[in-house]
Structures are given as C-alpha cells and as structure tokens.
Amino acid sequence: MEAKKTQILDLCDEELVHPGNRGCAGCGLNILYRIGLKAIGEDAILVVPPSCLTVVQGLYPITCSQVSVLNVTFASTAAAASGVRAALRAQNNDHTKVVAWAGDGGTADIGLQALSGAIERGEDILYICYDNEAYMNTGVQRSGTTPRGVLTANTSIGGKRERGKDVAAIVAAHNPAYVATCSAAYPLDFHDKIAKALSMKGFKYIHAHTPCPPGWQMEERIAVSVARLAVTTGLYVLYEIENGQMKLSEPSAKLLGKKKLPPVSQYMQAQGRFRALTPADIDSIQNEIDTKWAGYRRQMTSAAA
Q: Can you list the domains of the chain with their CATH numbers?
C-alpha cells in the first residue's frame, strides 16, 4: 500500500530555520533546508562540511538553524557522521537522528571516499546531497556533477568537456538500505522521502537537484520553474531504490504516458551557463534523454505483460 503523500497543509507549523539567513535570493537549498528539517525534526544532529549550507547557517555565534549542527572538514562528512552515530550508540541513544548534509563537491569529489566507506559499513545515517552542480560558494568552479558543456569559472570557453557523475547510481551500486533522487521543485516529495528514509535502519542516501541562480546564470524568480523543467523534460529523473528495485516517483512516472516530452533546450535556454553548447550538442543530449525514456517505457511494458 502506498504511503499517504504529504500535502502543504500537512506540514508541521514549527519552523526549524529562521528567515533572513545568508542564502542567495532564489536559492533552491533554502527550500530544501526548510522543508527537510520539518521532516527531520529537532531530535537530530546535522553533520555539514564547508558548503553553501554553512553560509545559510550563518557565522558563529548567530545561526538560522534550530537543530544541533556539527561543522566538519570537506572530506570527512560521512566519516564524522559515522563517529556521531557511534558516540550516540555508546550513550544508548537510539532516537537521535544523524543526518549528513553536503553539497556536490563535498559528496561527489572531496568526500566520495568517506561516503563509500560509510555505505560499505552500513552506517545508520541519512546522507543528503544537495546538488547545485558546481562549487558555488567559492566562485562557481566545476565539480564532478557539473553537466557537460556548462561554463564555470575554471572551464574553457567551450564549457566542461566531461559528463557529470551520476552519484546516486554510484551509491546504489553499494546496495545501501535506500537511495532516492529529489528536486527543489518538488519539496513535498523531498519531505516524504526523508521521512521514509529515517524510518529505516542502515545507510540511506538522497540526492537533490538544487537550482542556484548565480551559478546557473538565471533570474532568481524562475529558479523553481527551471528546476521543474529539468524533471519534465526527462533530463533529471526522480526515483527511489529499495532492495535493488528502482521505482519512478510520481513527477517522473507521469512522463511515461507522454509520447513526447518537452525539448531539453527549454531547460538549457533559461540558463546562461549552457550558452557554449551548439545545436549539435543539444541534439546529442536530447537523443540521450529520448533513449533513456524509451528504455523506461519498455520496462513498463514488460512489467505489465
């Protein structure tokens, strides 16, 4: 039986993030952080490396966060979270939740080794990666998840030449308890996946696509619309993996019934960071998306047979 989906009026009234923080206007992370903490609750310890989230939290001794936060070094997020869990276990505390919350740089690149080790050990933590697809708070340098063709402060005039890492797939290959992808454009989906993950034992991972107006070179007011386009064009897929089985989440599952998805060019044309892409580059990316969704539809047909 499907779990009841949270509606906006079902969210708890308590705010665990004060307004007026240091996040940029239109920041997708602010959406995720506010709604995510409602699912996590006060009885939790967040482990956070250097990232935009440390900027949002504020400078000591003032913070917008109303939960306990441990700020750690860039490479150690998952290892430090493992240590926090071990300390709680030593105190016979099995109720306080341990949540690592890091950016794509601290997850896909600098923190990947610690992340892999924590998954392999089966640590009972939730790891959330908010992926704005570059090192944003240090000047928009390319990261491992930066898409091919994107212009950053340290790429050539033709943009990044390599494809971005599929970190959720890398994590899934370790066979953790739970893997899910989310988007800041669908915060209630994010809320429910956090709640589901925290009901499980073992290592849980959530990868959230997070718009960044300055880094993506777009107007603040369209950040959520652009993030939604990433999903509706089929470029970014929302799903869950449990027991090795992948299931598309509702926003992406709805696309299976459509013969033709909106062109990915709509997503890219809304952002200045893709301006180095040629029409041939965009056609190549569109073909990759079409092939991927043709595969999903074949799987659906086979399952129904």
A: 10-304 (3.40.50.970)
